[in-house]
UniProtKB/TrEMBL annotation:
Signal peptide: none annotated. Belongs to the GHMP kinase family. Mevalonate kinase subfamily. GO terms for cellular component: cytosol. PANTHER family: MEVALONATE KINASE. This is mevalonate kinase. Residues 87-156 form the GHMP kinase N-terminal domain. The gene is mvk. Its main location: cytoplasm. The lineage of its organism: Bacteria, Bacillati, Chloroflexota, Caldilineae, Caldilineales. The keyword Lyase does not apply. Pathway: Isoprenoid biosynthesis; isopentenyl diphosphate biosynthesis via mevalonate pathway; isopentenyl diphosphate from (R)-mevalonate: step 1/3. Keywords: ATP-binding, Cytoplasm, Kinase, Lipid biosynthesis, Lipid metabolism, Magnesium, Nucleotide-binding, Transferase. One of its GO terms (biological process) is isopentenyl diphosphate biosynthetic process, mevalonate pathway.
């Protein structure tokens, strides 16, 4: 089968503002360009129809047939076909594969949708702006998650840091600041909905403290944003470590996260924090570029199942 189209999209990580963003405060997210999901679109025999096979999900879907394990992606593909004025289903075999874990906090569903949209556009010789791609990917995220923030799709489509508030949506950040990170996966999978619901329940029982902590987390996010825009990296370690302390207070850290944080700081990292919903998931470490290899080894010894370097530049 000949290759008609190919595209890829990165993962994403939250730098600061997780959970407080739910309560109207700002958050910052970054692309993880060394973790990508690829879509390969091949021509199939006449009458074959369209098949989407996801290596990560270990699932195969045929649009229009049930059961359909990937309804959001089949709808996403149809949106591109509609935009191109393509009548009827093409004879395509589409493979989705890469190194972004499913339900790992890196935005795998948004990356899959983005790669699929661009690969289909490639096959159809359809030119789409990033705004058009973002709209289709956001629609896919709505089908997948119900009420997404809009952060994941914006980060994976534009591949640059994003500042997000629920009232204004995502805004791309133009910064000349440079920083190096290591993202470590605890291997502990937890539901974002469960983590958010847990914070809401604990807040209901202690509104005064939780609103103060969440507000302080929002102030930290604003300070990080200002530091990045002003290229004032000296204040970043204290701000990220402060963010982690508030994540502990609202109950979303986890013993696996704390082991990695302790190991990173003991190895000379300047900051380490939960990244994303917590209760496991990812830990983000601020470090020097020359520290990444040793830190990766130490964190794997401490239980990390995967590590990947990230750069803000």
């Amino acid at each position: 089968m000949s290759l008609l189209g190919h595209a890829s999209a990165p993962g994403k990580a939250i730098l600061t503002g997780e959970h407080s963003v739910v309560y109207g405060h700002g958050a910052i997210a970054m692309p993880v360009v060394r973790r990508r999901l690829h879509a390969y679109l091949h021509a199939a025999s006449p009458g074959y129809g369209t098949v989407i096979a996801s290596e990560q999900m270990q699932a195969v879907a045929r649009p229009g047939r049930t059961p359909n394990p990937m309804p959001a992606l089949t709808r996403t593909l149809q949106s591109v076909l509609d935009l191109a004025g393509q009548a009827g289903g093409p004879d395509w075999m589409i493979y989705l594969r890469g190194n972004i874990p499913v339900a790992g906090g890196m935005g795998s569903s948004a990356a899959a949708a983005c790669a699929l949209v661009r690969a289909a556009g490639d096959a159809l010789s359809l030119s789409m702006s990033k705004d058009e791609v973002n709209r289709i990917v956001l629609d896919s995220e709505v089908l997948q998650h119900g009420n997404p923030s809009g952060v994941d799709n914006a980060v994976v489509v534009w591949e640059q840091p994003v500042w997000f508030e629920r009232t204004t949506g995502p805004n791309r950040m133009q910064t000349k600041a440079e920083a190096t990170f290591l993202l470590a996966d605890t291997g502990v999978r937890a539901s974002t909905a469960e983590a958010v619901a847990g914070v809401a329940a604990r807040r209901h029982a202690n509104v005064a403290d939780y609103d103060r902590w969440l507000g302080d987390m929002g102030s930290v996010s604003l300070a990080v944003k200002d530091a990045l825009m002003a290229d004032n990296m000296d204040v970043l370690p204290d701000l990220l470590n402060c963010n982690q302390e508030y994540l502990r207070r609202i109950g979303v850290s986890h013993p696996a996260c704390e082991r990695l944080i302790k190991a990173a700081l003991a190895c000379g990292a300047s900051a380490a924090k939960v990244s994303g919903a917590g209760l496991g998931g990812l830990v983000l470490v601020l470090c020097g570029r020359d520290q990444q290899a040793e830190l990766a080894s130490r964190l794997e010894q401490a239980g990390a199942v995967d590590t990947v370097g990230m750069e803000l530049s």
